[in-house]
Design goal:
By secondary structure, the chain is of the alpha+beta class. Helices cover 26% and strands 29% of the residues. It is built from eight helices and 16 strands. The chain has helices spanning 29-34, 38-48, 60-70, 137-142, 146-152, 161-168, 174-181, 215-229, and strands spanning 2-7, 10-16, 23-25, 50-53, 83-85, 115-124, 132-136, 156-160, 185-189, 191-193, 199-201, 207-210, 235-238, 245-249, 253-257, 267-274. Strands 1-2-3-4-14-6-16-5 form an eight-stranded mixed sheet, with helices on one face. Strands 13-7-15 form a three-stranded antiparallel sheet. Strand 2 and strand 3 form a beta hairpin. It is globular, with a radius of gyration of 18 Å.
Length: 280
Amino acid sequence: MTTALANNSNRLAADEISPLIGSRVLLGKPDLLSGEYAADLRDLLEQRGVLVFPRINFSDDEQAAFTATIGEFMPEMQGQKVYNISLDKRQNPNRDYLKGSLYWHIDGTMNRKPIGAAILSSKVLPTWGGNTEFCNTYAAYDALPEEKKQEIENLRVIHSMWNTQLYHTPEPTLAQLEQWMAMGEVELPLVWNHRSGRKSLILGNTAQEVIGMSRMESAKLLHGLREWATQPQFVYSHEWSVGDAVMWDNTGTMHRAMPYDPDCGRLLHRTKTAGEEPFA
């Protein structure tokens, strides 16, 4: 199904990938870099959660320039424009940190404001596996029964980076644990009430426990909601080709990498924009 959005005199055509998540954008590189369709792309991204630009073949500078048309460009912690997403030490010496990317998560839950939009472009394919999966937490919230929405509306959740690391390293040394814990913890709402009036779920592997619940009840709720949000109708799995770029709304989706050979050289380049509203 092809949809079109109007923005002044511009029109953006895109193919829906599935009813509740994902659109394939039918624009060439010059149109994307011009910025003329930026407002359309932002609107479509909020509606669809994920936008795919097949084999667009951005250079790093082009990817950074395109990202800046979507919102305020957000450099990496050390100032670099582009971040290497890879479990191969030749590509990323801090690959252990990225092991948490193999589990459902939202980027930037430890930030005061989250990442807004993020873009990955494929540079080196894995030898096997390595799809990136996305789920639409706007759509997942909308589909919840009304009684469940009322149950979770005002709940607060503790998030931490160290919780993510326990997914892949359940028996860390004390030194490892202390290093992870040094990043602290934050308290976030379970339901994000956006300025637009829409609502999404804040879940993923940083979610540690629901405040005011027993550990057992908290775990059942968080795992149950994650299971709900990652049902097939809410999920898009992207099988990479070299040159593909994929942009997602980090304020309304979760994502994860599917397993692949960590030493195969698989490489994605990420750029991102700053979030425009705090978690609320």
